[in-house]
Amino acid sequence: MTKRKSVRIAEETLPVAEREPRAPVEAIRAAAFAQFAERGYPVVTVRDIMKACGLTQGALYNHFKSKDELLHDIITSTQGELERLCQQAVAGVGDDPRAKLAAFVRVYVMRHCRMRIEALVANREIGWLDATRVADIRRSRRAIRDILVTILRQGVEGGVFDPPQVDGRSDLKAIAMALLDQCTHISMWYGPGGDFGEEQMAKLYVEMALRAVGAKPQSV
Predict the structure, then answer these.
(1) Domain count, the chain
(2) Is 88 helix (H, G, I), strand (E, B) or coil?
(3) Are 112 and 152 part of one and the same domain?
(4) CA 141, CA 68: separation in Å to the nearest integer?
(5) pLDDT tens per residue across all 220 residues of the chain
(6) Whether residues 138 and 116 fall in one domain
């Protein structure tokens, strides 16, 4: 397996138990996210994680049987929350596919801006898990993709989306994956303090997504 690059995290983002008291399991999860993001899963030890969150090594085994189980837990938890947020966003905006696409992209981008470390770990370190542990994560990712494919299909069938075609056909699954890749990748480079804040970045990505699928303007 190829070596993964580590991501340097500002010191203030690391969990500090005395400033931010947490339940032990939440402290362990936060420390694991930070350690895995900064140094990579293979290098980080259980001792490193427990030292980072100010707990004894034995405390981890009260909640997780192994480092593998901990990695699976934190990726599953952040992936499940992303799926829930996407479902909730789309369900709350009515029937217009343009509004659904905008809501989906907005919440997806905002999540990847605000939870950058979690996204990095989930997307970069998943390869260290075995096939059984990866299966439910991939199921959730397919569910998110299918939400987007459904929106695109509704837009095409309703005559409000005109996505790119090749040889007279559109591949909505491929378009959905391209949009997801674009939105996911923001976690690799976005940081506060730039020209655009989170809300502005979300608006930009919504506009790009609507243009990419050939969304027709709403009637006034």
Answers:
(1) 2
(2) helix
(3) yes
(4) 20
(5) 444 444 444 433 333 333 344 578 999 999 999 999 999 999 999 999 999 988 887 888 888 999 999 999 999 999 999 999 999 999 999 999 999 999 999 999 999 999 999 999 999 999 999 999 999 999 999 999 999 999 999 999 999 999 999 999 999 999 999 999 999 999 999 988 888 999 999 999 999 999 999 999 875 3
(6) yes
User: Are residues 23 and 106 both part of a single domain?
Assistant: no
Q: pTM for this one?
A: 0.85
Structural contact between residues 214 and 175, judged by C-beta atoms closer than 8 angstroms: no
CATH of the domain at 175: 1.10.357.10
Instruction: Give me 216's structure tokens.
Output: 């027709």
Q: What is the CA radius of gyration of the chain?
A: 19
Determine the structural domain holding residue 108 and report its residue range: 67-212
- Tell me, yes or no, whether 171 and 86 share the same domain: yes
User: Phi and psi for 56 in degrees, rounded to 5?
Assistant: -75, 155
Name 47's Cβ contacts closer than 8 Å, sequence gap at least 6. Answer: 57
Contacts of 10 (CB under 8 A, 6+ apart): none
